[in-house]
Specification:
524 residues; alpha/beta; Alpha-Beta Plaits; Rossmann fold; 7-stranded parallel β-sheet; 4-stranded antiparallel β-sheet; 16 helices
Length: 524
């Protein structure tokens, strides 16, 4: 009888183990790109590559349609795919666990790895609940989304508005903004978890030209995309006009918003979505990517990365970020808020060499206590630091300006300034910008693991950029029409490719009628 009980106990344990480790989504690495064609690249994307002498290569070929069709015939849905890394993420049509036997006889699958366990369903009910919640947990706020406080940050009073320029002046970014270099002609892709009220609030929507939701390609869950506030706050650091009380670092740039983060869970599939988002940024012709996301720890600890993975170029998201940089985009990523955690170092993909990894400083220009330290060998990370404590940002949850905390906000601050620099000297390459930013740092001669090359000086950067190439006269830059209303309900008239008016941007192809001019944003 005791033996029988033992057998029952062991069987129950086995079932528990199976349930805990069963995966319903797998990343498949494919052997080649049989029958592929080159991906759709906008005219803007091609011009960016031509300017920088970047030729098409195998990473610009789409994932093999032959293999995609084969997987679909076998009963798989394609959840995500990457042309850069030649992968697809698959799931069963009924959402059940996938047996590894399913891949055993697929000769075109080189290897496979789980990216999500059972029990994660992106249903409308969950998304609606998320749209009513500012942050799901302190853990999410600290690690995933970069708000080191984990709580609502205090609103700034109107009397403190003049001091809102400090994050700009601390890095001498006013040398750009005050002289008319405000990001004109630049397109910034913002990768984040959601953009609350980015379709209605002037600070946010004034120069947004489109959006895409990687978790909902059909655009059905409008509430989720506009339900989480982190991306909106990051966006406001760049796009706000100073008349709103926030000195945005690229107020005249254009923005494309891409939701790659699923804020209720932490699974490796979010890295696939990030890479897919970066590929979309490449396709539409974005010049820069601002990403305040980072990964190392997951809900299932079996998926966790290790510190031995840093700088090795093996982690999926870091590999994707490196390729994104090779396509002529400048990639800015928050270093992470792990300064006082067991992990204690930067997140992925901020470890990638050609990514500008941004740490945080406080009001005294010291490292913020939460800012993730990195390393000085084989290269330096983070690259630089700028204000990440008490950063003025528009808080759509409160409907006011708030002081926010995290490397999440240092990242767009720097990204916007790089865009404004690029608008001043359009002939610069991302590699030149990275070098200028690093060499201007306060610790350039003796970089540290905590602050990298230190605090950049954009007055010095601008002067050196002028020496490299002829600047663009700010008077010759076409200025966008100023929108007088501070709060608007419609930041443009949106039409689909059939010319039908829609109430919001649509997913893959859209036209914006702005100031009487028709713009085709993305057509596939």
């Amino acid at each position: 009888m005791k033996r029988l009980r033992l057998y029952i106990l062991l069987a129950a344990m086995a079932i528990t183990i199976i349930d805990m480790t069963a995966a319903n989504r797998y990343r498949l690495y494919l052997k080649d790109k049989a029958g592929s064609q080159y991906c759709a690249l906008s005219e803007r994307a091609m011009q960016r590559r031509l300017r920088q002498g970047i030729e098409l290569d195998s990473t610009d070929l789409e994932v093999s349609p032959t293999y995609i069709n084969r997987l679909r015939k076998l009963g798989f849905n394609i959840v995500s795919k990457s042309r850069w890394l030649n992968t697809v993420v698959v799931e069963r049509q009924d959402g059940s666990a996938i047996s590894l036997e399913s891949f055993k006889h697929l000769s075109f699958v080189v290897r496979h790895e789980p990216v999500e366990g059972l029990g994660y369903e992106y249903d409308a009910l969950t998304q609606t609940a998320m749209s009513q919640t500012r942050h799901t947990s302190k853990r999410e706020a600290e690690r995933k989304l970069g708000d080191a406080s984990g709580t609502s940050t205090p609103r700034l009073s109107p009397s403190s508005v003049p001091n809102n320029k400090l994050p700009l002046t601390e890095v001498h970014g006013d040398a750009l903004i005050d002289n008319g270099y405000r990001g004109q002609g630049m397109l910034i892709a913002v990768l984040d978890g959601g953009f609350m009220n980015a379709n209605t609030v002037y600070n946010l929507c004034r120069n947004v030209i489109g959006w895409y939701d990687m978790y909902d390609p059909e655009g059905n869950t409008y509430e989720m995309f506009y339900g989480e506030d982190h991306g909106a706050m990051c966006l406001s650091v760049m796009t706000s006009d100073s008349t709103t009380g926030i000195w945005g670092t690229a107020p005249d740039a254009e923005y494309f918003l891409i939701r790659t983060e699923y804020s209720l869970t932490e699974c490796p599939i979010e890295e696939d979505m990030w890479v897919a988002g970066a590929e979309m940024a490449d396709s539409i012709g974005a010049d820069l990517i601002s990403s305040s996301l980072g990964y190392y720890e997951f809900d299932n600890s079996a998926f966790n990365h290790t510190q031995s993975d840093l700088t090795q170029g093996t982690v999926f998201i870091s590999r994707g970020a490196a390729i994104a940089a090779s396509k002529g985009m400048l990639i800015c990523n928050a270093a992470g808020n792990e300064g006082q955690t067991a992990w204690g170092t930067i997140d992925f993909p901020s470890d990638a060499e050609d990514v500008l990894s941004v740490g945080a400083t406080d009001a005294w220009l010291n490292p913020s206590y939460f800012s993730s330290p990195g390393f000085t060998s084989p290269y330096v990370k983070p690259d630089v630091c700028c204000r990440g404590s008490a950063v003025p940002a528009y808080d759509p949850y409160l409907g006011d300006i708030s002081a926010v905390y995290g490397t999440s906000f240092a990242c767009p601050l720097l990204c916007g300034l790089c865009a404004s620099l690029w608008s001043a000297v359009p002939s610069l390459t991302p590699a030149q910008i990275r070098t200028l930013v690093r060499e201007s740092g306060s610790l350039a001669d003796n970089p540290t693991a905590q602050m990298g090359y230190g605090i950049p000086d954009f007055s010095v950067i601008l002067e050196r950029a002028f020496e490299i190439a002829e600047p663009k006269d700010p008077d010759a830059i076409s200025q966008p029409q100023v929108i007088e209303k501070r709060n608007v309900t419609d930041c443009g008239q949106w039409y689909d490719m059939q010319g039908r008016r829609v109430g919001k941007p649509v997913r893959k192809s859209m036209i914006l009628i702005q100031n009487g001019t028709k713009k085709v944003l993305l057509a596939k």
